[in-house]
Amino acid sequence: MNLAERDLQVIWHPYTQMKTALPPIPIIRGEGVLVFDEDGKSYIDAVSSWWVNIHGHSHPYIAQKVAEQLTTLEHVIFAGFTHPGAVELAERLLDILPGNQQKVFYSDNGSTAVEVAIKMCLQYWHNKGEQRTKILAFKNAYHGDTFGAMSVSGRSAFTAAFDSLLFEVEFIDLPSEENIDSLKSQISNLKSQLACFIFEPLVQGSAGMIMYEAAWLDELMKYCREKGILLIDDEVFTGFGRTGKPFACNHVQTQPDIMCFSKGLTGGTMAFGLTTCTQDIYGAFLSDDKLKTLFHGHSYTANPVACAASLASLDLFLDPATQQSIHRIAYKHSVFAERIAKHNKLKNIRQTGTILAMEWNTGSNTSYFSNLRDKLYHHFLERGIILRPLGNIIYILPPYCITDVQLDYIYSAIEQALDTI
Ligand SMILES: *Cc1c(COP(=O)(O)O)cnc(C)c1O
């Protein structure tokens, strides 16, 4: 049996209907934006391996730092103990986040970073003796797959089996010039019950790279702040340069109360997550009453290897060459978008920073499950490009080390798809 056949004997893959799935492609090596299969065929990783990779695969600098850490201290319990990597990472991150972020809480992934954020907000009000238990979120939001994160995500085919068990959330439309006043009055009607507002800033990734304007997000954030509603900025996807600035919240004036990070945090090396908060939130848990403690933790909280990978990734991220590359990708995306914007097969093309998304005209069948998705997926795979369409939407968000030549190759494969599919 080859690797793909052995895989199907023993493995259940994420987001995959195993009955109809094609055998998985075994990848045995990665270098820069490329990953290589068993036969040596290379693929450009145009989706950064589910949006996590920002500096390319098997980066030698990250590998070296991780290797050093592995032979120094691989893990230690994080209650009652600490270690240099956790402290240094917290110090350096807080340095580049909005000034009001004062404390870092470590966990394992994006969903847990969101769970921690929600618990911080709900218990913040509980500790203060105020009855604020409702959460505000956007329609079509995605904040993760654990139950709390699923609850604050939009109801969809993915949550259908669990809908009756998810806690109630107030969902509002994305803000725009037209609806901002009506959104405010919706919020105003609920204001004294709302504990927090959680949002994906500027781009709703899983919903299909839906983009909205920073100015209207800022307006909503400001309004919620006035009403005492805590602001959770879920930067799991948008953090670390994706939107063209270091963090999506750098596009708005209002500073969030809580921020969530994962995905690009370790440069895409390994699972890790963290939640940051203000002194005010942290302060609400300080008490002689033990019941006011935040009772949350994971076995691998603040894993030293993950901290080392994150510190190495941060070094690379802050290198001016990386920042230049982010701007170069954003610029090339915009030139390409302008060139194909009028194509009759395209319903829409949109861009935020290094994220470029285009929506195929499909007539009636526009669902995630349409067979256009599979045709597009295979069109790109045959050309050695990993793109993973969300229904009729294809998107590129490459590692920042992608070259102009590689970007042009992806663009031309997209133009071929437009002309032939
Ligand atoms: C991916 C994602 C999550 C969940 O992160 P996982 O590490 O997959 O659990 C949460 N929020 C947003 C905005 C995401 O894109």
Automatic annotation (TrEMBL):
<feature type="site" description="Participates in the substrate recognition with KAPA and in a stacking interaction with the adenine ring of SAM">
    <location>
        <position position="15"/>
    </location>
</feature>
<dbReference type="GO" id="GO:0004015">
    <property type="term" value="F:adenosylmethionine-8-amino-7-oxononanoate transaminase activity"/>
</dbReference>
<comment type="function">
    <text>Catalyzes the transfer of the alpha-amino group from S-adenosyl-L-methionine (SAM) to 7-keto-8-aminopelargonic acid (KAPA) to form 7,8-diaminopelargonic acid (DAPA). It is the only aminotransferase known to utilize SAM as an amino donor.</text>
</comment>
<comment type="similarity">
    <text>Belongs to the class-III pyridoxal-phosphate-dependent aminotransferase family. BioA subfamily.</text>
</comment>
<feature type="binding site">
    <location>
        <position position="297"/>
    </location>
    <ligand>
        <name>substrate</name>
    </ligand>
</feature>
<feature type="binding site">
    <location>
        <position position="263"/>
    </location>
    <ligand>
        <name>substrate</name>
    </ligand>
</feature>
<keyword id="KW-0963">Cytoplasm</keyword>
<dbReference type="InterPro" id="IPR015422">
    <property type="entry name" value="PyrdxlP-dep_Trfase_small"/>
</dbReference>
<feature type="binding site">
    <location>
        <position position="142"/>
    </location>
    <ligand>
        <name>substrate</name>
    </ligand>
</feature>
<dbReference type="InterPro" id="IPR049704">
    <property type="entry name" value="Aminotrans_3_PPA_site"/>
</dbReference>
<dbReference type="InterPro" id="IPR005814">
    <property type="entry name" value="Aminotrans_3"/>
</dbReference>
<dbReference type="Pfam" id="PF00202">
    <property type="entry name" value="Aminotran_3"/>
</dbReference>
<comment type="subunit">
    <text>Homodimer.</text>
</comment>
<feature type="binding site">
    <location>
        <position position="50"/>
    </location>
    <ligand>
        <name>substrate</name>
    </ligand>
</feature>
<keyword id="KW-0032">Aminotransferase</keyword>
<keyword id="KW-0949">S-adenosyl-L-methionine</keyword>
<dbReference type="InterPro" id="IPR005815">
    <property type="entry name" value="BioA"/>
</dbReference>
<keyword id="KW-0663">Pyridoxal phosphate</keyword>
<feature type="modified residue" description="N6-(pyridoxal phosphate)lysine">
    <location>
        <position position="263"/>
    </location>
</feature>
<protein>
    <recommendedName>
        <fullName>Adenosylmethionine-8-amino-7-oxononanoate aminotransferase</fullName>
        <ecNumber>2.6.1.62</ecNumber>
    </recommendedName>
</protein>
<keyword id="KW-0093">Biotin biosynthesis</keyword>
<dbReference type="InterPro" id="IPR015421">
    <property type="entry name" value="PyrdxlP-dep_Trfase_major"/>
</dbReference>
<keyword id="KW-0808">Transferase</keyword>
<dbReference type="InterPro" id="IPR015424">
    <property type="entry name" value="PyrdxlP-dep_Trfase"/>
</dbReference>
<feature type="binding site">
    <location>
        <position position="234"/>
    </location>
    <ligand>
        <name>pyridoxal 5'-phosphate</name>
    </ligand>
</feature>
<feature type="binding site">
    <location>
        <begin position="110"/>
        <end position="111"/>
    </location>
    <ligand>
        <name>pyridoxal 5'-phosphate</name>
    </ligand>
</feature>
<feature type="binding site">
    <location>
        <position position="388"/>
    </location>
    <ligand>
        <name>substrate</name>
    </ligand>
</feature>
<feature type="binding site">
    <location>
        <begin position="298"/>
        <end position="299"/>
    </location>
    <ligand>
        <name>pyridoxal 5'-phosphate</name>
    </ligand>
</feature>
<comment type="pathway">
    <text>Cofactor biosynthesis; biotin biosynthesis; 7,8-diaminononanoate from 8-amino-7-oxononanoate (SAM route): step 1/1.</text>
</comment>
